[in-house]
Specification:
The complex is a heterodimer of chains A (about 120) and B (about 170).
Chain A: H1 6-27, E1 33-40, E2 46-49, E3 54-59, E4 64-70, E5 73-78, H2 85-88, E6 98-101, E7 106-112
Antiparallel strand pairs in A: 1-2, 1-7, 3-4, 4-5, 6-7
Chain B: H1 9-30, H2 43-54, H3 56-74, H4 80-102, H5 109-132, H6 142-170
Helix pairs in contact in B: 1-2, 1-3, 2-3, 2-6, 3-4, 4-5, 5-6
The chains are: A alpha+beta (about 120), B mainly alpha (about 170).
Amino acid sequence: MIEMKPGDWLVLIFSLLLIPLSWSLIDHPSAETSAIEITVADASPTTYSIKQQTQINVAGELGHSVIEIRDGKVRFTNSPCSGKVCILSGWHQHSGDHIVCLPNRVSISLLAEQDRFDGINF
Amino acid sequence: MEKNIEITEEDRKIASFAALAIAIHVLESGFPSPVPGIKPGLANIITLLVLFRYGWRFAAWVSLLRVTAGSLLMGTFMSPTFFLSLSGALASLLSMWVLWTVMRRWVGLLGVSITAGVSHVMAQLLVAWWLFIPHSGILVLTPVLITAGILFGIFNAIITSSIENRLSRTL
């Protein structure tokens, strides 16, 4: 079998620890979503609190998209696009998530009060 | 006046190992992968073997020839695929240089293979992030790639070591 030097054990143990560590960094429940940002085409985004119950009508490229906010979650309920991918993707509540309707050029970003991290470098 | 480029024994060895690595590289790309972008990097077995037997300079030649000639064969030369491949190869060569040339007394095949695997995927991820997909969402791939890099690093080290054992018995 493989000849193991001390450094090999070190690398092996460290790397086997790194696997769960890297998953936990990414998979952790994200920080609580505090707001959503709705962006239409190239316009600057509009921010809404997620702690409310409301329906928002957004005029996109093709027509009106309807966005519903309820119980700290957000979804598309109506959209003029043909694929309806945005509606079918359902409710979203995790910060960092995005719902994008490409045909109508409407996108929703779920924001947290604090960003967890921008990047990880090794 | 006729000019002759002297071809040394070393050149021949580098060329044959590179050819072997290219063949593995091309064959591997034909295998379906359950997750796109994740593959074992079997050609790295040749790089490791060459590093083990002939040293880092030799391994660097074989690895870079594999990336260049492999991409020419696959028609990906100078495409994003090529730059990802190149960045991965350069990063793993760098890690091999550190571990193998500087710290050889403490680290062997397994340590080098795992480190090279992880360096490879991380360099690719960072280059992809920097050049092709400048969105932090791509970082969600980090654990997937690290896990693959480590597992295939172990896998490749085991294969390399068994090849090395057979070679040293026959040669």
